Each structure stands twice: as C-alpha cells, then as structure tokens.
Amino acid sequence: MSSDFFRNVKQWDLEWAGRKAKLPVFYQDNTSLTAIYTASTAKVRALLPRPDMHPIEMLPGKCLATFTAFEYRQSDIDAYNEFSIAFMITLGRPQIPGVTVAWQMLKRRFSVYVWQLPVTTEVARYGGVEMYGYPKFLADIVFTRSSDALTCDLSEKGKHILTLKGKALRTAPGKIARFVTYSIKDGIPLVANVVTNPLEFKQSRDPHAAELTLGDHPIAETLKTIELSSKPIMTQYCPKTEAILFAGRNLMDG
Fold first, then answer.
1. At 189, phi and psi to the nearest 5?
2. Which of 159, 160, 161 is nearest to 223 (CA)?
3. pLDDT tens-place string over residues 8-64
4. DSSP per-residue string spanning 195-206
5. CA dist 121 → 31, 125, 141 (Å)
6. CB-CB contact of 233 with 205 (8 Å)
7. Between the CA of residue 65 and those of 36, 91, 110, 124, 148, what are the distances in Å?
C-alpha cells in the first residue's frame, strides 16, 4: 500500500536509459547521513558556475558545505547508493550571514548547488545527467554499520574520495523538508525540488556526531583547498526516510 506521503502526487510514465520509469521519482525506503561543515566563502565561490550563485554563510567569510550519503533500498529506479557534495546557496539574491540559513531552517526549505553526485548504477547516473544536469558519475559507495555508527566509504576506480562516519543516534519522526537543487545542463541553469519525509530522524550539533576523512582522489584534493572546518557544525541521521524527486525545469519556469 502506498504511503500517504506519495498519495496525492501524480506520476507520468517515460523511458529512462532504455527502461520504463516515472516522474516524479519516488523513493520509498532510504537511509541518509548528512554532515554540514563550514568552508571558505571565497574558495567555494570559485567552484560555483555562475556569479549570481551566492554561498550562504554562517559567519562572514565562512559558508556551508554539505556531505550526504544516501542508501536507496527501494525506489522507482531500483536500489542504488549516492553521495552528494553540495554548497548551500542563494541564486540571484544576496544572503545575510547567519540569518539566511536560520530562515531556511525555520522554513525547512534549503537551496543548494550540487557540486558532485556520484552514484552506483547506470540508470541513476544517466537520468541524473541527462534530465537534471547533475554532476553524476559511477563510483563505489559502500555502507557499513555497527551498533553505534553508520559509515559510508566513497571511491572511484580504486582511489579513495572520502569516508563519512556518523553516530547511530536515537531518532524520532521528523518533519517534511524541501531541498531546492540547482545544477547546470549544457550551460543552462536548472532547478529541481526534492521533498523528504524523515520517518526516523535526529539532528545534532555535537561536533563529534560525525567525522569526515578525505582521501587522495582529485575531488578530495579540491576539498582540501576550501578550508573545511575540522568538525561538523550539524549532523542529521535518518535511518528511514521517504523522498520524492520532482522533474528538473528551467529557472525561467519558476
């Protein structure tokens, strides 16, 4: 039986990488782990593709970088894993250090530029690149669990990109949140909405709730240059989540 979360959302059939698929894409059973770090605003701005993308700052000169590991156990495009490296931004409007991020948290509506988005299956890579302009590539994304932690190892062709480890925190039902993602396809900016329903959720400001270790891959070497904080300023642990990825659209389409 379909969850109430999906019940009032119309889907359309389409063909995706030679197989039948649907839009929006439903993710019925997922786990995610997010750690948010501060980074140099100037260094992050240099990684953004448009001058009207403004990094959202905690403090003047210190913006926000998010690292999220996803384990999609059940979805409309089958099971796969994904890892998002994104920067919180505003587009076309200035941000106010500390205020903009507080407002987004209050509204549970977060806007990000997706910088890297490796995945483990070709159908997920193809759809993300061709329909959304996401910077997806095939990678090894492996989750391991212990009694008190969830660990995600990310690598490509044998080169270690990073490892994200988070505490298995005590959870409760969370509130629905919206993530507005910006990407570039053929030089054209696109926007897409991801709506999440965290059935099991815990947010922590404990600086020891998560740990990020960078490897020797070129992506890791770039991350080493943006002056990431040594500890996360926030961690979100979601062992069970539902989500909907809506179709990408041109910015002109609102």
1. -75, 135
2. 161
3. 999 999 887 778 889 999 999 999 999 999 999 999 999 999 999 999 999 999 999
4. EEEEEEEEEE--
5. 17, 6, 10
6. yes
7. 6, 16, 12, 23, 25
Q: How far apart are CA 16 and CA 127, in angstroms?
A: 6
Give me 93's structure tokens: 């409007």
Q: Give the pLDDT band (50/70/90) at residue 254.
A: low
SS3 of 107, please?
Answer: helix
Structural domains of the chain sorted by starting position, each given as residue range(s) with its CATH number in brackets: 30-247 (2.40.400.10)
Closest CA to 238 of 162, 152, 147, 172: 172
Distance CA 253, CA 142 (A): 37
**Is 95:64 a contact under the CB 8 Å cutoff?**
no
| φ/ψ (deg, to 5) at 127 | -60, -40
